[in-house]
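To the structural biology subgroup,

Please find below the input and predicted structure for Carbohydrate ABC transporter membrane protein 1, CUT1 family, which we are adding to the shared reference set this quarter. The sequence is reproduced verbatim from the submission form. If anyone notices a discrepancy with their own records, reply to this email rather than editing the shared folder directly, so we keep one authoritative version.
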Amino acid sequence: MTTRPRRLRMATFVVLPAWALVLAAYVGTMVWTMQISFTDSKLLPVDTYVGFDQYERLFSSTRWLVSLQNVAIFGVLFIAGSLVVGFLLAVALDQHVRFENTLRTIFLYPYAMSFIVTGLIWQWLMNPGLGIQKAVQNWGWESFRFDWAVNREMAIYAVVIAGIWQASGLVMALMLAGLRGIDADLWKATRIEGIPPWRVYLFIIVPMLRPLIITAVVLLSIGVVKAFDLVVALTSGGPGIASEVPAKFIMDYLFTRQNIGLATAAATVMLITVASVLTPWLYFEYFRKARPRGAA
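Predicted structure (tokenized):
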């Protein structure tokens, strides 16, 4: 009877160094970052505390406000577009089409690329003098325009298209794995009942794929928060600041403009924003106990 508690204590003792490392490397650095955001640090961290001055300066910056607006647009369109395109590709492949393995590889291949490579590819495709616009105009359609990467109004949407092109293959792979796990008897029953396929997918299959959809959303959300290299490679945040995002703002002020205080303030705002969204979701998804029947 005493063997099990002893083993648990031994296991806890063995895991303690790993937990200490995690706390020091992650929690410790986050706390230190937040501490620096309340100082007047420039090139190097200093202990000159200035209260919320850095945050006031941050939210009075047009560049920061534009970056927040852009990341909201990019996040919503990128996640929704990747989910829709990835799910449609999975549905198409689930019909057991010919050359399925080849098509699956082609659709998934962009995800194997880095965001830098994806950005460079789409920078070339959207170049007015080299890419799609030039090719279509050479075919005789001279009024055609696809210069979004250099268009101030459309630059952020160019980033969205490039991101969807890369990430939809990952969503396809997840959704296809889920579709292949659907019981064949379900499909037989819906055919007997005469239910249209689109209603089956929308009202039966999609709810069954909820865990996979949540996984896809989490993975895509990480890409949204970390959106830096794709923006740098495709538009460099331009024209002007038209496609600026928080990650690029932070990196620029941290390494180029040498304003650590403002950069850490921006990083802290992003951390609080992500935590405020993630914490309630984790609570309702995993930690909230099911209500007993009859409870108010």
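Summary notes: The first helix runs from residue 3 to 36. The chain is about 70% helix and 0% strand.

Regards,
Lab coordination
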